[in-house]
Amino acid sequence: MSLSKWFVRGFRSSAVWHSAVQQTQSSKADWLNRTKRFNNTLQEIVTNVMANGEVGKTPSLAKRLVKLMQYDTLLRVPLQGHMTMMAYEVLENPIDLNEKNLYKAQVVSCAMELTQSNFLITDDFDDQAKTRHGQPCWHLLPEVDNLIMNDACMFRCLINDILKAHLEGSVYIKMIDIFNKMNLFIAIGQHLDTMIPKAKDYSLFTQENYDKIVRYKCTFYCLEMPIMLALILCQKDDEATFKRVSYIVRDVGNLFQMMNDFTDFCEEEIVFDKTGTDIQAGKCTYFAVKALERASPEQKEIFKASYGSWDPEDVRHIKNLYNDLDLISLYKEQHNFKYNRFLKNVNELQSDDVLAPELFIKLMEASQLNKWKVY
User: Fold this and answer.
1) What pTM does this model have?
2) For the segment 181-233, what is each residue's pLDDT rounded down to a tens digit?
């Protein structure tokens, strides 16, 4: 399961932003303007931090990091950054929405978006993906090759430098702590997502393990992080509130990952901005888990003989098996259930709650979640 195909490669990608969703010209213009402003701020922040730090002492490295930012970050709608800013604007006391505080929020939003890029390049490398944004993945460029991990390391250090240069006191300490926690969660999710397929032990393809992968690789950093970062900036953060955020968005994380897993049924790369290889890579996906739950002994043998193979005929066998087991109907049913449960939890929030319904409504609109086809 490669999270980024839909959420990290999708919820986060320009393809999802513009795909199959009928938007008005005014909303398109608004998001284009937001993105232009965000990217300009991002480039300004990165340039200034590198010029005044250790990276600036090595011009070739600074040039390389700028190229990486241009190659990945600036080619997509910075949804992760937009969501962080939106959350801050909703959660902050109106009297404190001044220029200084808004700029700090922009800094944190940029750090979040750069973290997204850092994860994407390593996730593409781990999955041996071929394309992103209609061009070769970063690790496939001749000048990258075995420097991919060093590039990722430098990018992460750049993110730390950005936070250190613009934040201070308890806010800075909490930000570093939460970014470290995010990187830990991503690493755990990446471990599970990589090692379970390598083990070739299909007893590990359980709903419990799938939920862990979704939590660590998707829900925490894609959905919880923007809200938690905003809460810290507003100084309204506490563990109880963080837990409530986690509870409310858990279904959304599953929705995104399930849709990500569904991309393997699609043949057109342009729809998802990324080629799908979950079946070939033997990933622990929603459909693989449900297939093993529903399959007869004979069908399980077909699954074991064909799953995790790059042979097109084996891939066809798996897709046919999914169809025979009517997994699409199950997917639609679960999609509908999780979507409606999320809406119920949001509607139960009080208007004067720190986590006001408006917060989740705006994030839904930003992600186009409210325009997904609900079956």
Assistant:
1) 0.84
2) 999 999 999 899 989 999 989 999 999 999 999 999 888 988 899 999 999 99
Q: Considering just the CA atoms, what is the radius of gyration of the chain in Å?
A: 21
* Interatomic CA distance for residues 140 and 210, integer angstroms: 29
In angstroms, the CA 306 to CA 65 distance is: 41
Higher pLDDT: 133 or 248? It is 248
Say how far apart CA 311 and CA 280 lie, in whole Å: 8
At 28, the pLDDT band (50, 70, 90 cuts) reads low
Q: Are 222 and 12 in contact (CB under 8 A)?
A: yes
Q: DSSP labels for 267-334?
A: --HHHHTS---HHHHT---HHHHHHHHH--HHHHHHHHHHTT---HHHHHHHHHHHHHTTHHHHHHHH
Cα distances (angstroms) measured from residue 329 to each of 272, 290, 322, 333? 21, 12, 10, 6
Judge contact between 263 and 10, C-beta under 8 A. Answer: yes
Q: What integer best gives the mean pLDDT of the chain?
A: 84
Q: Residue 77: name the closest of 126, 124, 122, 27 by CA.
A: 27
Q: Name, in order, each residue with C-beta under 8 angstroms of 118's C-beta and a sequence gap of 6 or more.
A: 152, 155, 156, 159
Indicate whether 63 pLDDT > 80.
yes
The structure tokens 């730090």 sit at 53
d(C-alpha 282, C-alpha 194), whole Å: 9
Task: Determine the Cα–Cα distance for residues 230 and 166; give it in Å rounded to an integer.
Answer: 15
